[in-house]
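Good morning C.,

I know you're traveling, so I'll keep this short. The sequence:
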Amino acid sequence: MFRFVFVTLALFASANSQATIYKCMIDGVATFTEQPCGKDAAIVKITPPPASNQIPATEQPQKPADLSVEDYLKIQKVDREIDRLQLELKELQKQQSERIDKLKNMTQDTANRLGAASIDDAISKQSERINAYYKSQIATLEKQVAQLEESKKQLKDQNSQSN
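The tokens, ready to paste straight into the viewer:
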């Protein structure tokens, strides 16, 4: 394990500093060094990662010229909160779907314990309960998203009016 970490670090260090790395076989084990370590030493070619790992400047979000830094940061914070709420919405919808799918495996005994006349009747009643439970939670999250969208719009409008 230590050797793997050392080799990995050596490879990354060499990629950044453009040092030459040599590979040798010592006692049947591949060894990597900065100096030739034997007659069978072979230079390892390492191509550095492309400099374009970062998002090109044209694709990075830019602060509009008419926004103050504070308002821009507030809008970014609102966008992150909207994204978080939308992920939460998707998770709730997934849970709702999974719970309804589980109902399809209901037995007659379970339906009888629920006081239903048939499996279909029990599934219908339980589905209504599940949907009502999630509907309120989903509606609350959707309302929060709408409020955040409105506050974001107001920040943008407020800034465009002051400039």
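Safe travels,
E.
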